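I am writing to request your help with a piece of structural work I have in hand. What I wish to show you is a protein chain and, alongside it, a tokenised description of its three-dimensional fold. Could you please explain, in whatever detail you think fit, how the structure tokens follow from the sequence? You will find the record immediately after this paragraph.
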Amino acid sequence: MKTYRFYGWEQADVPARTDAYRGIRTPLDLYDALSAGLWRAETCAPRLRDGWTPENRTLGQCSITAFLAQDIFGGRVYGIRRPDGNYHCYNVVDGHVFDLTSEQFGDEKLSYADNPEQLRETHFAKEEKRLRYELLRRLLAERCAGESRG
């Protein structure tokens, strides 16, 4: 079995609630697809883009990734308040807590308890974030469509 390094990978086995993304059956499949070049500088939060590298591909990708995961797996998105006042987003689906973008924090231990729910309406009120989410969603759809033909 492949070993993952993101928080909650051991319980990231919830089933997709949509077949809109062929081949994405669990959050592990989503992580694999995003890691294969879909997370990129253009999908990174602009304030963090200078620090983005392919080796640190989850940097600045949290909210758009968490809401995309919510589209596929359901559940809720929660946020951990960071020292700069922003929230780091992660998913909770049927009691399964997973954070596909936690690797950006290295060895820092984040608290996944008692955090406020995050709403896409609030996050996507920022046009740049909505556009990054739409780009990531489109890239995933194109990748999944390409795999179905191949």
In short: The first strand starts at residue 76 and ends at 81. DSSP finds four helices and three strands in the chain.
